[in-house]
């Protein structure tokens, strides 16, 4: 027997309609590529999103067709978020930091019909365009006065494109499971794979972001999105903003410490979201300019994701900014919200160092995300904060597969998605990532975390950087090999290194050997390339 | 083209599973009918809910069949919330304050298979049982030691029923649109009508309750549900509790000021929800016992709904308790959450009296509830805070019809449900109810609010109570008639009354006549019966 509730589909356009009815006057403030700060409202954004939809309909864009953006965080990008998805097309946000060949690949793989770009990407688009004959037009997101003079074929001007269009659009009543947006993961191997979000997943994810135990975004916030709109929909914040009516502050291309600080100060930012790197730049600016964030800002919460937030960063935000860090974890395949780390009432009695230890964990799953850890045979492991295993997730905003079936089946028979991470989960549901599954060292049926060993090794005053990889071992299957870069002019030998580690880790975790090198291989974005290291040490064997 | 997200159904059992994984140790504290305070956790509640489901399955309860409760707020009622709906049956919560004939009617209308009851309702059940041959068993929600000795046929003991059952249950993967619970409205005319909530509507509603702009329920809260679980699922809080992990405090049958205050104090209650009546009892207790709530309690928010929160109540909570009132509005047909009144950042600069004026409004629609006001022809009226018209709502947790089709089609062709209220909506989306549609006076095409006139009239020091009804008028269609009960030993005549009103309302709103009576007709719950008044004054005609 079915309930007798209204059949209302959860759509991106329903978020926009809510914003227009409930908080048309809430602000959206952008730093533009053209230079000045631009101020608008959800009301005006909604009317211009309708113009975008009318223009795309005039150009012949059909339901389900992809429309790409290559753009920073700004009001025109917001208009595309709602105009493109609202009219039934699919917004494909492209990460401009990908290699040019990868961008070519994904635009072709996605069959993008149109490509909207910020003028700072004009040189890139000029290079890409000749390789992209399928794109019907390249639309510069600016007015006539700032049109780029780069050599771009089929070039259109955004403001001219939408100028004559009506300010309303009869948003179609789509099936909520229709595709709404597309984002490619920049995997370390193979071609990028597309994650295809639905209207339903985007709306449910927004609700989660607005819950107090999620990110708590509300009409009382002024939220600075340092996290880019070209990456997992800026963690869903443009949608959650429309849901809540929070003031949104969009920093455009200027992510340096000074620009970010000034926006925080001038726009009374209460909440900011970004990856650790940008906060390090912010800290450096605060230090070099001798600023007093506690006195000048009204920052209350900082959401840190993308990679693990170091304890010192959590402390700096607490002490210098008076802001609470919400450590968050997720993936492109998870829309991305998976866990948030915030303390429970019972933690109030703990010593600060104990509380900090909890806050460096990835946190507890928001409702909508189920998590479990398993061993290699798929058997669920206990939630005791000690056992660590493969981290599996399930939920309505988690991918069931990649666009066009790339990568094949990605769910197990019970519908769980393997994150590729290795983690512990404790009795209160706090999850802590201990390693990537491919990096964990399997020694005699037990697992050793390469990350934990690396963290222990870099604690030595003479160590600049360290990596641990598993190397084949006749008896134990694998044993850890520690690879160390010494600090300049520092002496450090194998024996001293192992003696130091002996005080830090269990005896059976001790690396079987230590190798000293001049440098370690990194990706363009600074991540350690363990695959290259494993390649490099393929023929290595432990001393007998 | 569909998105490629996982097909996860939103189910009551998914709320329970989340609670078991993420916050099994969060508390549920109940004042019991048997006397003592009972403490349990979501973990234990979930295991006992599984026992309930196993017991019902053993009794032969099928998907979609109704299982009734006649119970206060308590842990066993929570177990039934999750056990009954989780296993695919429909939880029918019965309001014990209905007339006995109405209860008989709805149990029969719902075809309830089993009826669970708190022992304080044993005398009522003894009277009901002979009239309810379709109910297969009456289950007293207690252990053997406290079984009632009332004459109840087919009587079972709750603890014995579930004692031997397993602590887990393979919760069925239902369609999320399946019926989950049933609640009858106690309309002023005709038989009660059933609102049939779905799993989907209950889960979406919970998300809304957990958003910061909703009720903001979170793992940091200790929430006292004075609002009864037999009425619109205690405003959805049992579900939202499982979603968030908030500690729940359930007051059982003891709703007097002293009992409520002691629970607030002893359980560190941060948030409390209830109707104005219970808060008046609380205030009286605080006053008579000379208590200092600000010092003794940690109450931060009070949600007031059911009827309008008077300004003085909002002020008392602010000043004496240091708590913010969230004025909420909804209906049984709306699950019930429709609007919440909280201030926006821009209101911080207002004078306290101006802020208070906003807080007495019903508030802004949560995402998921669309609202509009229309004239008699269905034309939408402006959102200017002045125009008032029929309040229509639409959304995924709003009824599409009543159980078994009673009352016929209740939505217009665009899917809007007419609330029967008359309201204004302002530019920021704040809705303010000015009258019931059937009570508003239609004078020459314009509307006059009977409630506004009544409120103005009772401002006169000699008036004990006042009612305004519309009476047929040859020229204006209807004109207001003011009916007044004087305070004891007070003199007040027509001329003085009208002269007083002249200073308070627009000239064309002035009643055409004033009639003095000894008393006004009321319902059992104290509401003015305007229908009876209209009956009484059917043959009245205005002085020429």
Kindly describe this structure:
- The structure is a homodimer of 544-residue chains.
- The first copy, chain A, has 544 residues and is of the alpha/beta class.
- In chain A, the strands form four sheets. Chain A has a 13-stranded mixed beta sheet with strand order 2-1-11-10-12-13-14-15-16-20-19-18-17, with helices on both faces.
- Chain A is globular and about 75 Å long.
- The mean pLDDT of chain A is 95.
- Chains A and B meet through helix 1, strand 9 and helix 7 of A and helix 1, strand 9 and helix 7 of B.
Task: Tell me briefly what this model is.
The structure is a homodimer of 544-residue chains. Chain A is α/β, with parallel strands linked by helices. Helices cover 29% and strands 24% of the residues of chain A.
Question: Helix coverage percent of residues of chain A?
Answer: 25-40%
Structural class of chain A: alpha/beta
Query: How many distinct beta strands of chain A?
Result: 25
Shape of chain A: globular
Structural key phrases:
seven-stranded mixed β-sheet; 544 residues; homodimer; globular; 25 strands; 17 helices; alpha/beta; 13-stranded mixed β-sheet
């Amino acid at each position: 027997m079915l309930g007798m509730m209204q059949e209302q589909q959860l759509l991106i356009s329903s978020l926009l309609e809510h914003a227009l009815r409930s908080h048309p006057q809430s602000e959206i403030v952008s730093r533009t590529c053209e230079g000045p700060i631009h101020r608008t409202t959800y009301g005006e954004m909604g009317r211009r999103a309708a113009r975008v939809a009318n223009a795309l309909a005039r150009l012949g864009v059909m339901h389900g067709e992809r429309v790409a953006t290559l753009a920073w965080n700004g009001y025109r990008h917001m208009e595309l978020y709602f105009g493109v998805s609202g009219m039934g097309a699919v917004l494909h946000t492209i990460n401009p930091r990908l290699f040019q060949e990868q961008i070519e690949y994904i635009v072709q793989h996605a069959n993008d019909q149109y490509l909207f770009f910020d003028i700072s990407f004009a040189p890139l688009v000029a290079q890409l365009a000749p390789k992209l004959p399928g794109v019907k037009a390249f639309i510069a997101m600016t007015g006539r006065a700032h049109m780029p003079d780069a050599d771009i074929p089929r070039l259109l001007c955004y403001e001219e494109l939408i100028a004559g269009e009506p300010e309303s659009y009869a948003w179609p009543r789509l099936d909520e499971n229709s595709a709404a947006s597309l984002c490619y993961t920049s995997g370390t191997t193979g071609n990028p794979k597309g994650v295809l979000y639905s209207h339903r997943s985007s709306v449910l994810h927004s609700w989660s972001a607005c819950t107090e135990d999620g990110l708590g975004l509300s009409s009382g916030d002024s939220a600075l999105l340092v996290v880019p709109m070209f990456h997992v929909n800026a963690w869903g914040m443009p949608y959650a903003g429309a849901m809540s009516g929070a003031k949104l502050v969009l920093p455009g291309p200027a992510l340096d410490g000074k620009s970010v600080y000034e926006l925080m100060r001038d726009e009374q930012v209460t909440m900011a979201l970004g990856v650790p790197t940008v906060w390090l730049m912010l800290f450096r600016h605060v230090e070099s300019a001798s600023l007093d964030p506690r006195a000048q800002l009204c920052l209350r919460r900082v959401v840190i994701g993308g990679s693990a937030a170091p304890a010192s960063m959590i402390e700096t935000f607490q002490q210098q900014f008076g802001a609470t860090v919400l450590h968050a974890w997720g993936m492109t395949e998870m829309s991305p919200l998976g866990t948030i780390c915030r303390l429970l009432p019972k933690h109030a009695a703990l010593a600060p160092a104990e509380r900090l230890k909890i806050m460096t964990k990835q946190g507890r799953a928001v409702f909508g995300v189920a998590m479990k850890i398993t061993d290699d045979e798929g058997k669920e492991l206990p939630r005791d904060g000690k056992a660590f295993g493969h981290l599996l997730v399930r939920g309505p905003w988690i991918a069931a597969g990649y666009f066009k079936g790339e990568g094949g089946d990605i769910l197990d028979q019970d519908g769980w998605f393997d994150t590729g991470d290795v983690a512990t989960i404790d009795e209160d549901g706090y999850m802590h990532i201990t390693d990537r599954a491919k990096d964990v060292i399997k020694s005699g049926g037990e697992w050793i975390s390469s990350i934990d060993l690396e963290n222990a090794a870099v604690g030595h005053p003479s160590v600049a950087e360290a990596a641990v990889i598993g190397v084949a071992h006749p008896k134990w299957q694998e044993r850890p090999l520690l690879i160390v870069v010494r600090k300049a002019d520092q002496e450090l030998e194998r024996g001293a290194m192992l003696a130091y580690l002996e005080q830090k880790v269990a005896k059976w975790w001790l690396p079987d050997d230590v190798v000293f090198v001049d440098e370690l291989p990194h990706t363009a974005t600074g991540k350690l390339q363990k695959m290259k290291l494993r390649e490099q040490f393929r023929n290595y064997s432990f001393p007998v």
